[in-house]
Task: structure prediction
Amino acid sequence: MKILVRNLAAATTEEKLNSLFVEYGTVQSCSLVLDKVTGKSKGFGFVEMPKVGEAKAAMKTLNGYKLAGNFIRVKKAESKAEAVEDSATTAEKKA
Result:
């Protein structure tokens, strides 16, 4: 399961993020999203955990967790196709 982690402090490293999630189970991958120009963190990243139960436990426990002075927000990541579909459905309902 791919997990979106938002509101990360600029000082947060992939290693720190990985160590936080590995307490809940196997972490397949962990990556911060970086600005292409500056190379600095954009304040969010993704963690992939292969076991759904472990991923759900991590999301439930870590959502609102204080990391490096920021309260992080953790939820299931949507694929780009799902996000586009959801926004189209919302637009149709408003019309």
Remarks:
- The mean pLDDT is 89.
- Residues 80-94 form the longest helix (15 residues).
- DSSP finds three helices and six strands in the chain.
